Amino acid sequence: MPALDDGHVGKRIAAARKAKRLRQADLAREAFLSLAMVKAVERGARHPSDVTLESIAAALGVDPTRLLSSFTGTERRVHAALPEVSASIAAYDVPLGPPERTLDDLHHAVDEAVQWRLSAQYGLIAQHAPILLSDALAAFHTAPDRRRAAQLLVSAARSADAVAYKFGARDLSARLIELMRWAAPHAEDPLLSASVAYVRTETFFTARAHTAGALALEAAVDAVPTSSSTDAVAARGALHMRAAVIAGRDGNADAADTHLTEARRLAQLVREGTYLGTAFGPESVLVHEVSVAVSLGHDHIDRAFTIARQWAPSTALPAERRSGFWIELARAQLWGNRFDDAFESLKVARLIAPQHTRKHPWAAETSATLLRLKRADEESLHHFVDWIGAV
């Protein structure tokens, strides 16, 4: 993928704006910028600051690196925000005062953060997470409707955790997960607790405690109500998907297959969608089949190739999950000596969710290995490796 230099940023902004059928005045309004600034940036007379570029990208619904590949403002913003996120939950069990917004306004803000998480917009989450968590905690301690406040707190913490986990702040991620586990019972909703158990698997992945993680997920499956409601079916199915992956990483092919079989059965009972913040359905199961095949290693990667020949993720899946599919497929293609295909898969992943791809360790590892092994299209591969920070 060719590098994007500063001189192209205005043209790329203009092209993205026109693709969205927006006038310059529309973009200025949506990005909270002056019309003069937008015009100057598009014609190359002004170079956008980090804040300006992020505002424009948000208004256009794209990642800033789609407009300028060398952009590192997201990383700076996230790392600057992580201590603030940590501080906002330091006294999670101590009432510190009323929230700054109503419960309805907080609900809207949390829903927005959930969408940012699903689309891998980590910079936006980091920007808003500290005050969002502070307000969610304040609401939990003061709102008359504690069940609703607990649900909002869990969702807010999950969005913040996505940033902490992806950017390597694993201790903060573990604290956010414990906050979710502390708050979830107050919602009196076993399906919310199931979604927290799904997220908790991150701590087992980090510790490589795969056997313990498998046991925790099996216990979580048993705790889900046997109701035939769509949300209950999706909750059980998502936990089986997660259990299949951790079994795969543990090298337990039989257990992984058992969980995938149950996940497939449950997926036939619902449409692909997002249930309590977790995507589940037939397509999500296929993504996890690829993940399991890659986790089990070389003897199983033909399953990943078979799926990829017959199917590719649709936009029904969140961007983060679609990007993850292509990153996992690239790893399988690398092992199968399909180097050009692996690089193409990484480029697709970047196109779908740049921030997710840039922070995914397997994307970095695969691209760096490709650079050592292949020679075709070497210039583009160098640019990709530089962008992802693999060398």
Round the mean pLDDT to the nearest integer and report it.
91
- Rounded to the nearest angstrom, the radius of gyration is 21 Å
Spatial strand sequence of the major β-sheet: 1-2
Quickly count the helices: 21
Uncertain runs: 1-6
Q: Please describe the biggest sheet, giving its number of strands, its sense, and whether it closes into a barrel.
A: 2 strands, antiparallel
Question: End-to-end span in angstroms?
Answer: 17 Å
Shape: globular
Q: By helix and strand content, what is the structural category?
A: mainly alpha
User: Could you tell me the strand content as a percent range?
Assistant: under 5%
Q: State the helicity in percent bands.
A: over 70%
Would you mind describing this structure in some detail?
This protein is mostly helical and 391 residues long. The protein folds into 4 domains: 1-69, 434 Repressor (Amino-terminal Domain) (Orthogonal Bundle), CATH 1.10.260; 72-187; 189-312, no CATH class; 318-391, Serine Threonine Protein Phosphatase 5, Tetratricopeptide repeat (Alpha Horseshoe). 72% of the residues lie in helices and 2% in strands. The radius of gyration is 21 Å and the shape is globular. The model is unreliable at 1-6 (pLDDT under 50).
